[in-house]
Amino acid sequence: MASNPVINMFKVRELRSRLFFTLVVLAVFRLGSVLTIPGIDANVLFKYFNDLASQNKNAFASYMDFFVGGAFSNFSIFMLGVMPYISTQIIMQLAVIIFPSLKRAVQEDGGQRKLATWTRVGTIFVCLLQSYAVTVYASSIPGCIMLDPRWKFNALAMLTVTTGSMVTVWLGDQITARGIGNGISMMIFAGIVARLPNAIVELAKKVADGEIQFVFVIVVLLMWVVIIALVIFEEGGERKIPVHYAKRVVGRKMYGGQNTYIPFKINPSNVIPLIFASSLLTLPLQLVSMIGNNQDSARWVARLSAVLTPNGLWYNVLLVILIVFFAYFYTQVTLNPIEIAKNIRENGGSIPGVRTDKTEEYLQKILNRLVLPGSLFLAFIAIVPTIIQNLFKFPQSVAMLMGGTSLIIMIGVDLDTMSQVEALLKMHHQDGLTKKGKIRSRNL
């Protein structure tokens, strides 16, 4: 009789400890997502966002809430989540490419540790900037702020929100080190999943009130299943580049003479381009929307806010462009053809049918052929919520679950977590989560 893989997960002590640790940290994150920052009247805040939702004017708040599980509209201590950290990562990685001196410093011994430290310091400044925008937004809500004078509230709110965001990043690091999965991605994943019940209830109310036809719900659900299947199929696809290593004699021993391959996924950067593109668009969107609510006389602010509306045309155009850009950018950073070719040559390897001096060019051509369709596929998934919202008149909170960044993150994090669980089970001689003991990939 075949053993149950779920039971096996709890038989392995290390895996059981990691799972429980991850769940506890995520529970702490969810608790912090409902704790309102000091000086805010939670009742006034609740009524304000409910009124916006009833008037379909909370597109920005709904968008922000999806990545922090409702923490933004709660004005909680974790309302910014890990998004400032991701924004700072983008800035630092771009800086490494632009400035040669910084690139040399990162490549030295201990350079990656220095880069991580600089990223965290930069995150503090980004948090302070965004938290100040939060205080401006709070000032635009009548009766929301209970603390006088105003500068005390601003200082307290900025300190609380910045500290909360840095604690969130620290919690994510703890999951990476002692739990299951990538901690930062798991925090975003938890925020998205936390919005599922409210989205389902909201959709059910729309159907019950006759605002959405039930047949449209069936059609969208079928589309959702197809999209999930396509995303999983795309995540498992890879191109295997064969590499042959010549035999070498060192002393009295012979080394090499083996055949192996380099696996290039059709989407080497996975969900990173979507996260980078969304966070980069979210930063100016957050600042413009918050400041615009308090300065209605500034027409240019209102126009810019309209352009950056999450379900708007220009927002989606910019999102597609940024996804393609970051897909190429991140792939070049993580899978540098020059470095790969150098390592192959230094170890006496070669790619069959390719001249040694043409290895970099060949690898670059393969990556370009993989990244372009992979990035365009990600871009298509990213604009699915807008299509569903405009075509079937679904609420934004529901449409964002049917595609876009949220769906890609959920599937990507789930597959990555399953792979780590699979590896731990096999390491302890237990049956894996799949029948053949591994999550299969396909050669393209």
Write a short abstract of this structure.
This protein has 444 residues and is mostly helical. The chain has helices spanning 5-11, 13-32, 42-54, 59-68, 83-98, 100-107, 111-139, 150-178, 183-194, 196-208, 214-236, 272-292, 299-307, 313-334, 337-346, 359-392, 396-399, 404-427; strands spanning 237-245, 248-250, 253-255, 259-265, 349-350, 442-443. The protein is 68% helix and 6% strand.
What is the element layout, followed by pairings?
Elements: H1 5-11, H2 13-32, H3 42-54, H4 59-68, H5 83-98, H6 100-107, H7 111-139, H8 150-178, H9 183-194, H10 196-208, H11 214-236, E1 237-245, E2 248-250, E3 253-255, E4 259-265, H12 272-292, H13 299-307, H14 313-334, H15 337-346, E5 349-350, H16 359-392, H17 396-399, H18 404-427, E6 442-443
Parallel strand pairs: 1-6
Antiparallel strand pairs: 1-4, 1-5, 2-3
Structure description:
- This protein has 444 residues and is mainly alpha-helical.
- It has helices at residues 5-11, 13-32, 42-54, 59-68, 83-98, 100-107, 111-139, 150-178, 183-194, 196-208, 214-236, 272-292, 299-307, 313-334, 337-346, 359-392, 396-399, 404-427; strands at residues 237-245, 248-250, 253-255, 259-265, 349-350, 442-443.
- 68% of the residues lie in helices and 6% in strands.
- The strands form two sheets. Strands 1, 4, 5 and 6 form a four-stranded mixed β-sheet that branches.
- Strand 2 and strand 3 (253-255) form a beta hairpin.
